[in-house]
Amino acid sequence: MHVGHIFLGKSFDQTAEQFLNLVDALQQSDLNQYVVVRNVALARRLDKLDNVIVGPVVRSPITAYCLMPPVDVVHIHDRSGWQAGLLLFLTKSIPFVLTQHEANSAEIGPLASSIYKRASGLIDETETNAGEHLHVYRSAADSQAASQLATHTLAAGGVTQGDNCRHSGHGDLSTVVLAKVEAVSRNPE
Length: 189
Description:
Elements: E1 2-7, H1 14-26, E2 32-37, H2 40-47, E3 52-54, H3 61-67, E4 73-76, H4 82-92, E5 96-100, H5 110-118, E6 121-124, H6 130-155, H7 173-186
Parallel strand pairs: 1-2, 1-4, 2-3, 4-5, 5-6
Helix pairs in contact: 3-4, 4-5, 6-7
């Protein structure tokens, strides 16, 4: 699995240290990680880790979006990178996960609210268990894959009225695929 990380924090503080520890802990799993950060000192520390590719240092979410290679899921670690997540989702169909900070849930505007709703997963800022992060990444990637398969199946006319399944919007696309798979496995033709 290929996971991208975007962390646009300016200073090397406790949050940056937590981010560094997470990326380091995720090395133990079967992940290829690509990291885009704003802080030069953080980039240098990340560059010392094995199996972690550190992209160029960036200053904006637009640049982070442009420099993110094709990955299975992107984790946006701070609110200043949210726009990159939305762009990756809308233009490249890459699901994104947000780190949920207490301050995020206070007052957010319409754009931030839209981004928040489109996130494929939320991870609490206090969550330090790399296994939990990995679970959220895999769920987001699997959900996106099921959604794309369902869209392709619907476009190809693969789901018919006789498949006894429902489709009421984006959230139920995986239900359509599962119903189709179950119907085919029961009645192979």
